[in-house]
Task: structure prediction
Amino acid sequence: MQSYLYFPGCTLRTMAKDFDASAKASARALGFELKDMEGWLCCGAVFSNVNDNLMVKAGPNRILSRAQNEGNTLTTLCAGCYNVLKRTTFHAAHTPESQQAINTFNEETFNGGVEVLHFLEVLRDRVGFDAVEKAVRTPLKGLPVGAYYGCLLLRPPGEMKLDDPNRPSVMEDLFTRLGCTPIDYPARTQCCGSYLSVSSPEHSEPLARDIMRSARNSGARLLAVSCPLCKYNLETSHDGAAATTGDEEYLPIVYFTQLLGLALGLDPQQLQLDAHQMQRIREAQAPGVL
Amino acid sequence: MLTRCKGFAKHKRQECCEMSTTPTKRVGVFVCHCGLNIAGTVNVNEVVERAKKQKGVVFAVDHKYLCSEPGQALVKDSIKQQHLDAVVIAACSPAMHETTFKNVVHSAGLNRYNCEIANIREQGSWVHDDHEKATAKSHIAVRQAIEKVKLNEALQPITVPVTRRVLVIGGGIAGIRAALDVANAGYEVYLVEKSGTIGGRMAQLSETFPTLDCSTCILGPLMVEAYRHPNIKLFRLSKVEEVKGYIGNFKVTVRQEPPYVDVAKCNACGECAKVCPAEVPNEFDMGLTWRKAIYTPFAQAVPPAYVLDSKNCLGLLPQACGECKKACDKFGTSCINLDAWPQVHEFEVGAIIAATGYELYDATKLTEYGYGTHPDIMTSLEFERMLSASGPTSGEIRCPSDGHTPKEIVFIQCAGQREPETGLPYCSKICCMYTARHAMMFHHKVPDGQAYVFYMDIRAGGKGYEEFVKRCQEEKGLLYLRGRVAKVFEENGKLTVKGVDTLSGKTVEINADIVVLAVGMIPSSGSHELASKLKASLDVYGFFAEAHPKLRPLESPTAGIYIAGAGHAPKDIPDTVAQASGAASKALDLLSSPTLEREPTVAKVTGELCSGCGICIPICPYTALGLSPTTKVAEVSAALCEGCGTCIASCPSGALSLRNLTDEQILAMVEAIVAS
Amino acid sequence: MATNFEPKIVGFLCRWCSYAGADLAGTNRMKYPSNISSIRVNCSGRIDPTLVMKALALGADGVLIAGCHPGDCHYTNGNIKTLRRFKLLQKMFDQFGIERERVRLEWISAAEGDRYAQVVRSMTEQVRSLGPLNWKNRVELTA
Result:
C-alpha cells in the first residue's frame, strides 16, 4: 500500500483528533496510508515565521531534517503546520546564509530537500480526483457546503503555491466529486482572526461572524475547513456557544476529511462525527442518502 | 604586412616577428598640474623628467591647467615647434578631455589618434595618499600611454552615406508629432501603422487632463495634417517585417495588408457594414460594443474609409460571402475589391523612430478585483469609452450589466501596480490624473452620484496637475480614501468593494454600481518582436530602452534608432509630444548631412592569417562579421562594427585585430606596468 | 611572506562601466593601494585568456578583469563571453598550479566607485599574502 510520510502536529493529537482520524480512515479507503514520521515535534504555528529571529525556526527545521531521513515528501493536514513547514522548506532553499546558522545550531543538515504536501495536494495531484470519485460509495447528494480556506493554506502565494490565493478551487473541485454542491462565497479566503481569538476576541469574533454570514447568504448550509484553529474561531464566534441550535446565523463546521470519509461510505464513528454533528449534516442536505 | 606571433613568453617579439614598419614617432609628453588636484600629490617635475628618458620621447613639459586656452595653445605650439608626431597628455581621466585634446592635436595638423591620455588624477592623485607611490604610479601611466601612442595607426573616420528619409513606426500622437516635425523640416517620412488608421490611444480618450480639452478635437487636425502632408507616406495595416543595415543606411521591408476598399472612392456610406454578417468585439470601444468585419475604426478615422478585417471576415479564399461588395456596387460607390493581396514594400531610410505605444495590463490577473466575473467591473480605458460622446453609450454613464444609471462608483488606483509580488512593480504615472478626471466627469454627468477613489498616493507632478486634482476633489465632493482594496465581490446581486481608509483607521465596505480599475500601462504587443528586428534593446518590462536614463532619453543604444512616447515608458501626452519632437530633432541631426562619420577603431581581418573557421561570426552582436563568398575568409563590415573587440579574443589564429587596441599595444602597456 | 612585497596588479577595465566606476572612486576621493594600474578596453570581452597569461608571464602578480554587470553590457553580452572564458582560464590555472585568487573577474558598474576601491584593496592584500608569482620558476616552458 502506498505510504505518505505524515506530520500530524500537536492539535491533531489533542483537540482535533477527529481531523486526524477521518483523514487516516479516508486514506485507507482510497488505498494509501498516512504514516506518522519519527520524532516529530511542535511546528511552532504562526510564530515560526512571524519574524527573522532564527531561534523560532529551529523547531520546524528539526522536523524537516528528521523527515528527510525517512523520505522526500511530508504530508500534513493542519493549515498552520502546512504553512510553517512549506515556508520553512522554501526559506531553507533560498536563504543559505541563515540556513547554515540554523543547521549548525540544530546539528542537522536541511537545505530544502523535502517537499511539503497538503492532504488536498495528495488527493488532487497524486491520487487524482478521478480515482477519488470512483471510490465514492454514498454521494453527498446536493449538500450545499462552503469550503473555508482561511489564510494559511494559500498565502503568501509565492511560497505556498497550493492554488490561486484569491479564487482557489481545490476544495470545491473535490466536493463536486463527492456529490456536494459547493457554494462560492466572497469571504472564503478571509482571515478567521487566528490567535486574536485568545488575545482580543472582540476583534476576531466579527471576522468569524462575517465569514459565516457571507457563506449563509450565498446559500451554504455547512462549512468545511482544514484547520483546527479556524474551526475553533468559527464555532466560538457566536457567543462562545459551539454547535448551538436556534442561532439562525450559525453554520455547522466539519473537517473536509470527514465529508470525504462520509462520501467514501465510512462509518461516522470512524470519522469521529457524533450524533449531533450527523444531525446537523442531515439537516443541511436536501432529502437524500444519509 | 603586419604579422603577430602567438608564441609564448619565451619569444621576445622583436626577435621572431615583424613589427609595424612605421618609423618611431617623435612623442611629446605634457603633464598637467590641474592646480593642486594632481600637483598636490604627484611630483609633476619628476614625471616630466622621467618621461624625457623614455624611448621615443623628444619633448616633455608641465602646465598648470592643460585644458585651458593657454594650455591647449602650449600643446599646439609644441607640436609645431618640436615637430612632434604624437602626444601624451598626463592629466585627468580620458572621459573628461580626450575629445578636447584630440581636437587640439587635429588642429595642429596631426591625426587624432596620435593623442593618448594618461589618467593620473581620478586613478592617480585622487586615490593614493602616499606622494611617492602616487608619483611612481603616474610614471607607469605615462609610460603606458607612450607605448600605446607609438603603435597607434593614423586612422580616418569611416564615412558612410546617409539616406535622408525617416521611418516612423507607430501612428499614435508620438508617431504623428515626430513625422510632422521631420516632414516640416523638408525630409520624407514613411509612417507605418498596424491598424487601419492613425490616432492611437489618444483617439480613444474623451477629454485630456488638465485642460479637459476634447481629445479628438485637438488630435484630429494633427491626424489630417499628417495624412495630407506631401512629405509623409502613410502605410496603414502594415508591419515592419525586416530591418537590415545600420545607421544612415537601413533597409526596411514592410508588409501591408490590403484594406479591400479603395480609399479614393469610398465615401463611408456604411452600406457594406449594414449587410455584413460577421460581428466581432470593437477594439476601439475596448470590447464594449460590436463592429462588423467591414468597418471604420472610428468616426474621425484617417483616411475616412472603411476597412475589411480579413481575419474576421467569413472567408476570402474562397469567397464565402461577398455581401459587402454587392451592397457597395448597388448602393455605394463600387469601391470594394475582394481580390486584393498583401503588398511588400522595400525601402531605405537613414533613421528609425519607434513610437509603438502601450496597452493595458491584463486585469483578469488581478483576481482580488474580480475583473471578468462581473460586467460592471471595468478597466479605466473601458470607462473612458463610456465617457466619450462617440462611445457605446454616447457619453452617458450606465452600468454595462443592465443599463441603469450608477449612483455609487468606486475607482481603484494602482490596480496591479506598485506591487512587485503580484503585479507590475512600477507606477504608470498617468492614473492619478485620469482617475481624478473620470471621477469629476462622473459627477458632472450624474450630479446626485457619489464617486470614491481608493489611492495610495496622488502623483500630480505636471504643469497644472496638482491644481486640477484639488479642483476635482473640492468642487465635486469626491471622496478620496487613502487605502487599498482587499476584494471586490458580488453578494446578493450587489457589487461590494471591501477596502480600508488608513487615515481614519477603519475598514470600508462600499456597495458599488460600477468599479473602475486603473490598471498599468505595458508595452504594446508586438513591440518585443519589433525590437528584435531593430536590434533595439528593451528594458526588463519590455519598454524600449534608452541609451542613458538621464542624459540620452531619446535614443536607443542602437545607433540610428530613436524612441518616443509610451513605448519607451508610461507617460502623459505633453511628455509624449515633447519626446516625439526631441526624437525627430535627433533624426534630423542625423539627416543634416549627406554623410556620416563613424569611429574607425573597428575590427580588422588580416586575410592571410584567417582560416575561415567562422568562430568569430556568431560572437558579434552586430552581425558585422561574415565569411567572404569569394575569398572564404572573414571580413568585417566597418560601418556595422562597434569596436567592442569580443571577436578578437575569440580568434584562434590572431587574424582579427582591433585597430588602435591591438594585442601588442595591450602587452606593451602591461610591460610598462610590470617593469620595475 | 615578506611584508614589504609589493604585488604588481594589472587591471583590464571596460570603458563603459568599470573604468567609469574607477573614475568615480577617484572623484569621491576614495583611497586604495597603488599596486594596480589599469588598461582601458572597450569591453571586457576584448580580454583573451592568453593576454591574461601573458600578463602574468611578463611579471604581473595578479590580474583584475572588470566589466559591466550581466545584462548591462554596452555591447549586449560581451561580459557573458568574458565569464565563459574566465571559467576556462581558472581551469588552466589549476593545471598550472597557479592560485585562482591571482586573477579576478568582477562586475563593477559606473556607479560603483566604492566597490572598485574595495575590490582593489581586498585583491591587493590577497595577492600580497600569496607572494610573488615567480612565473619563471613555476611555469616556464623550456625551449
Remarks:
- The longest strand of chain A covers residues 2-7.
- The mean pLDDT of chain A is 91.
- Chains A and C do not touch (no CB pair under 8 Å).
- The longest helix of chain A spans residues 119-135.
